[in-house]
Structures
1.
Amino acid sequence: MELSTRRSVIRPRTIPFPSGFKVPGFVLRLALHMVLIGVGVLSLIPFVWMVSTSLKGAMEVLSITPSFIPQEWRWENYKEAFEQVPFGRFYLNTLFVTFVRVAGQIIFAAMGGYAFARLRFPGRNFLFMAVLAVMMVPGQVTLVPNYILLKELHWLDSYQGLIIPSMFSAFGTFLMRQYFMSLPQDLIDASVVDGCNPLQTFWHVALPLARSTLVAFGLLVTLWSWSDFLWPLIITSSTDMQMLSVGIAYFQGQFISNFAVMMAAATLATLPLIVLFLFAQRFLIEGIAMTGLKF
Amino acid sequence: MQNILNDPMKRREALWGYLMISPMVIGLGIFFYVALGASLGISFTRWDLLTAPKWVGLDNYSYLLHDEVFRKTLKNTIKFTVLNVPLGMIVSLLLALALNTHIRFRNVYRLIYFLPVLTMPVAISVVWKWLYNPDFGLLNQVLREFGVERIRWLNDPHYAIWALIFMSIWMGSGYGMVIILAGLQNIPREYYEAAQMDGAGAVNRFFHITLPLLTPTLFFILITSTISSLQIFDIVYTMTKGGPLNSTRTIVYTIYDDAFKFFRMGRATASAWVLFVIILGITIVQFRTQKRWVYYE
Amino acid sequence: MKMQVFALALIMVLVLSLAPTTTTSARDEVTITYAIWDNNQLPAHEQIMDAFMEANPGIKVDIQVVPWGNYWEKLQTAVAGGEAYDVFWMNGPNFPVYASRGVLMNLQELVDAGNVDLSVYPESLVNLYSYDGSLYGIPKDFDTIGLYYNVDMFDDAGVEYPTADWTWDDLKAAAEKLTRDGNWGIAATLEDQSNYWNLIYQNGGQVINEDGSAVLLNESAACDAIKFNYSFVEAGYSPDGATMSSVDPAIQLFPGGKVAMIFAGSWMARTYADAEPNINVAPLPQGTQRATIIHGLANVAWSGTKHPEEAQALVKFLGSEEAALILAQSGTVIPAYEGMQQAWVDALPEMNLQESFIDALEYAVPYPTAAKGMEWNTKIAEVLGEVWAGNISPDEMCAMAADAANEVLQADE
């Protein structure tokens, strides 16, 4: 109780949102809009084509100069996506794997980041540098050994194999450390006086304050995990274990009628991320701003 | 060190510290450091995963050193990075600056520019292949209106890497934009107000306040996007498979090809180590030179 | 404190409880996996599995469709990981690689015990899947190559339909007339098995020498055949490599009505019969002689399987008459089992399958293989791909392709 009142007293420095500048002059504003719309169109074309193709008939997809608006709106493609391959299963797999990966990355990164930022212990700088160095290791270097490790553990083609090696984020640790460094020391001292051990201080004081940063980091991890391709491609072998990215490759370029269906699958696969972003985009910028992504 | 062990308070703090970092340190230790060591070992062998590995010493490295294709691969990777990173940063910066105004519909614009980041690369590259098709792709159809002759975007060694860079900027600039937008919000408004009182114009304010105060953010993007550009793989895999004439073959594509198509684990891990050393070198140089242009408050 | 311990514990339990899906249920039911790469054949194989499971209570088969583009990568990583499929499809060029490394189960004892009668399969396929005097794969199907054509486009251009008597010149003349209204007469693809290898044998050339140790593409007969194929691109009768690499000719351009003719395998007949344009097929045209590439797949079992008896039972059943009949009636591929060709031909009566694919067996040429896997052929494809895209002159292509392939074949492992 005591802790929660304290939490509500000390708010993070609030960032005025939205902020920005006035663009002077009608002509200048109009010109800016023109440029922004132009870039927007460029940005949207591939996406619009994906959605429009997903609604076309098998024959229309193959027409050489396709139009953006389908001749007949074939919603059945979406139904077929679920019928032709266990798309529902891929969906659940992706949701589950992403959820646990994100939860793991957030908890471990926040806990580690807090300790690196706020606790003193011998070897701290060395260990932090060792964590940072991981950011420079291309994942391809560890691909083969990790594959062999999973084989020894009998984790190939399993959820553990998909999830556990992907629960540790050096970037996340760095990000959270940056944030926790900016917390006022009085706040932490106060909770120590209240008799909190460091883990309790972390959990009850620091973590709630970091909400925006956690959401931002979680979003970035979700984005990455959702389309992660190479690792699931290599370690999974049964259809039941596939994630969406590999599942979509299952449609690709194989058979005529599947092209529109594949686009339907691709659209469906993207939809949750768009919805998520719509809800969370506020936090994304705010969270990154609070950490101040810099070295 | 002695002090810490003697002072129970400090000892307790240290113990908590170790406890809290332990999941991360153990996880990264196993899946990165042990794996890193193992991959170094594998790089001294010839191994197809089916039969037992054979120790070949430095053979894999000397092969790479003398292989013309690998040298070209290195050149392509560097070329891609050198072009992609600054161009991508400029686009991100311009988008962010434009959206950091009170212009109408900026939330809509922001969503639209971020949309490419949200699409799945495996799926969207099929669309891009269609856009780049020389005979019926949208790009050439538009260019034809302006009298430009048929360009074989993905199949002409002069254009292929540009086609990939363009696509990569399309996919990535929304990401950079968001980070820069966040950076812009951290610039205290008082600076601008003070500058305005001194009569500084918009251009002046940009070069004397916005840009300098944004350099730490730009430096962050520079480092991370350099590392990820050097590791470019997925669009090469889906769009060009390294062709034409190896003009888009990159290091990671070669690693993938060697490891999971021809099952030469030794050579693949040797290439991976070459990449690692390059990334390490470039990152160190970037950190060394940051004093000259990065301005920390 | 309790909260975070609980949260951590929850995640750990969540993760660890999801043990790999080794579904050995309480009853003595054994589940084995069967990997295939052709989604078109999935319905037929589901039917075959139903029949198998009915005949063999206690064995459950889980079919895994791994798309062709990832199949060999996935298979090799799965074998190396000790988690391979119990039974899976094998093709000719990859067979020696897997057989020589002990990945495949030796099926000779099935033959010796009289459980499998090899006389019902074509001898060439039995030989293809034998290694060191033992059988490792039971032939599943076979395929030959034919000339598919878009009937409507021929009618519109007023060109006679292809016949068994067509020569290369007839093909060229027809391609020229059919190239109109922004459409192409033919897709001169870079497919080896279904395109230019056939031309090489039709011209009296060879792809690779007898013992598979050297590529012979730079000999004049073979080289002229490749140049003949390229001449369609050069003359504009065929889309070039740049176009064909992003829009697949066999599954998009041809059934989409943009290309009037294409060489393709018997396994495409079902797909083309279902496509919207009116498509029929004829035997390949002849050069200095007749030739079509014959190839066939086999079902093999993994030597490391935990259920060898069940895997053997499945391989055996897949080679049975009952399974072959189901496959034939689906119209997807021609079963290797003797006498099943007619059922396949009857499945698609609207197409000229008998003459194009079955009668073609008389002059069929086996699929050329080397002892060392597929990399040599990848090298050839790289060189020819550049020619087709317009980046290398066709004058030097034969020598370049042969050199690149021979370098791989002669490299010491």
2.
Amino acid sequence: MTVAEKIIARGAQRSEVQPDEVLWVDVDLAMIHDSGGPRRIWPMLEQLGVGVRDPDRLVVVADHYVPAKDVAAAEILETTRAFVDEFGIPRFHEAQGIAHTVMIEKGYLQPGMLYVGGDSHTCTGGVLGCLALGMGSTDLLGVVVTGRTWLRVPHTVRVQIEGSLSAGVGAKDLILTIIGEHGMAGGLYRVLEYGGSALDGMDVEERSVLTNMCAEIGAKTGIIPSDAVTVEYLADRGVDVESGPQSDPDCSYIETWRYDGSAIEPVVARPHRHDDVVPIAELGSAPVTRAYIGACTGAKYTDLSMAADVLRGRKVAPGVLLQVAPASREALARAVGDGTAATLMEAGAHILSTGCGACPGIGSGVLGPGETCISTTSRNTRGRMGSPLAQVYLGSPYTVAAAAVAGEIVDPRPMVGSHG
Amino acid sequence: MIEGRVWRFGDDVDTDAIVPGKYLILSMPEIAAHAMEGVMPDFAELVRPGDVIVAGRNFGNGSSREVAARAILLLGVRAVIAESFARIFFRNCVNVGLAPIECPEAGLIEKGQRVRIDLVAGRVDIVETGKRLEAVPLPAEINAIVESGGLEGFLRHRAGRGTT
């Protein structure tokens, strides 16, 4: 069996499962956030006359409406806090960071877990070797009430990447290249299982870009079977785990996608499709008015650090607004601690609050109709980040920082590590 | 059996197009007034109870926002037929009691036609032409949830039987 099949089999209390079977499984851990969580689920709990079955298996995060920009947002946050008090949820994080980043940083996710979250980017968590499945509010109601959910066992695609990424090329370039080749529905109903020597050179945060954007290829989730990097990351967070389940050598993959990591170039996704991916070398002239470093995809500490590698000693071009919304307080604290934040600010970056921010078009920094943005986020569908008339390109933190300096999208490699 | 008049949409319609993020703060009826705004701004005015949405590949991709399915349901749409669905949207349809029908031949259905849908058998008939399209039957476990009017009703039903 593949690692995904093993995790589902354990959840279903079966010795074996087959792709396409529909099964009820036990859920180890669930996450809900302020947008799709308490405000949607609590009224249904009241209708059913039941409560939260196991508060210790539920994490609540407030990340979409923080900081409250108006009274309606503040009321959503009040509802979130009241829910946590009412049902005695011990793990609640308000304005600490974006849920998917927080779940990883706090060490809540561990290899082999069956984890569900009320958000499409829940798949990010698969970076730690768990099966991390995004769902909607009523699905989470079911999990909160019964501790169980139904699943169709997915086929697994093995994504094998050999060879290290070059300097100035990020995991974002790799995943955008994969999405560009297979299309936004290329992984529909499947699990992407990553492996290969390219992963050896990536830390957990950088690897998580690969699992995060499984949502953008339509996959059920992405997973990186645990290894020494996983175990060490969790040990640093005070979580002592053995390496988790691995795919059997004779397991059955529906397809294997092979990539040469060293051949990956800086790319961008053009407006308004995240699968319209081109090498920057072939893009032509693309001036920008906004550069946005944000989201669970692209504003973790490693992302801020990559941006700083470009911005050190350089200035943001006139006419460009560079905004940075760190993915968590921890990311910001680390960036402040080692001078990364100072580098960003000296270059002219505007530092925003941590949270989902402009990525879902909810928080601060949304785009007006005449703006063209280059963003480290995951989606550029029309209207996602604000006005339906705004243009959004997606790229790596290197690429976004280089575009902020140049005033247009350029190959960031000449600027990486070279003091401006 | 569901029968209704067809509204046509293309490939890769995402949940940000079905319900843009800026409306998530609103009440459900207010959200529904903007349903499908990103691809057809006057849809909420024109759609009538009992109508059916027909789309291409990967319908409902993107954000997990369940209100996308609820908004469509609240306008009276009975079913969504698509060549394929984004998986979270498919689950959300099941959970709110909006029938999702995966029909690889959905491209043969035209705007304004009437379709008759048999969920369990996995069939879509175009009333005007008499053409029968094969669809993917809903597994019994999942159909049980749709038939309960969604997961909330399903849970209530099971709790009533003492099996939850």
